[in-house]
Amino acid sequence: MADILTLKKINKTYGEKTKNPTQVLFDLDLSFEEKSFNSIIGQSGSGKSTLLNIIGTLDKPTSGEVFFNDVSLKGYSKEQLAEFRNQSIGFIFQFHYLLPEFTALENVLMPYKISKKEITTQVMKRAEELLDIVGLEKFKNNLATNLSGGQQQRVAIARSLINNPKIVLADEPTGNLDSDTTENVYKLLREINEKFETTFIIITHDRHIAEKTDRVIEIKDGRINLDIKK
After folding, report:
1. Does the pLDDT of residue 117 top 90, yes or no?
2. Beta strand spans in the chain (E)
């Protein structure tokens, strides 16, 4: 299977111009196959969140290159990266970041609104179908504040898929959920991976969850400590 994402010799240093710069990532080489279901684990401060930010183009490496479908993103401007990010990458965070004054359906549509494209009947239908897939079709007109924590995270999952991204990056997506809800959310992510053939890269501190993915990458002190494919 072809690689959808490749990182070559990624280094990240903060405070380069200060007396005490801090290097967080060291010469990382990683590739991710399209349609794959991956997890990244590591202790706090290991560099895993920095790595995810670089993969998601929210941050740039100090040196090294990120390739998407063999095309380097190194020369992209901020505007080009923002457009690429909006169209090609879905994000799910530990804190779902729903807008409380909007309904579940309106929150799902938010990435599309950001792109300033017309919300057509087809787009609206997709948003409703995504809410149905995550089990919230009946709650589409509920304000975000009137949803449980698990329901809000399901809205965030649907939102991450509205632009039909090739990759979904999830940073501790169940960090604030109880064990039963966590299990259900990960089952849902797996179902989406299989249904839409979306590549998933999930950061989690939960080894029990990581073991359910097809590949486990452990980051330790800014380097790859383990890389196990099942």
Report:
1. no
2. 3-14, 22-33, 37-41, 63-68, 71-72, 89-93, 167-171, 199-203, 215-220, 223-229
The one-letter amino acid code at 6 reads T
**3-class secondary-structure state, position 7:** strand
Question: What is the chain's Cα-based Rg?
Answer: 18
**Strands in 42-159 per DSSP E:** 63-68, 71-72, 89-93
**Higher pLDDT residue, 105 or 204?**
105
User: Is a pLDDT exceeding 70 seen at residue 177?
Assistant: no
Pairing of strands 199-203, 37-41: parallel
One-character DSSP codes across 136-189: -GGGTTSBGGGS-HHHHHHHHHHHHTTT--SEEEEESTTTTS-HHHHHHHHHHH
Angle (deg, nearest 10), helices 149-160 and 179-196: 20
Residue type, 184: N
pLDDT in tens, 5-53: 999 999 999 987 788 889 999 999 999 999 999 999 988 888 888 998 9
- Condensed to tens digits (0 to 9), the pLDDT of residues 137-151 reads 899 999 998 988 888
Report the C-alpha gap between 189 and 83 in whole angstroms: 24
- Mean pLDDT value across residues 46-75: 92
State how far the Cα of 110 lies from the Cα of 160, in Å rounded to an integer.
10
d(CA 21, CA 16): 5
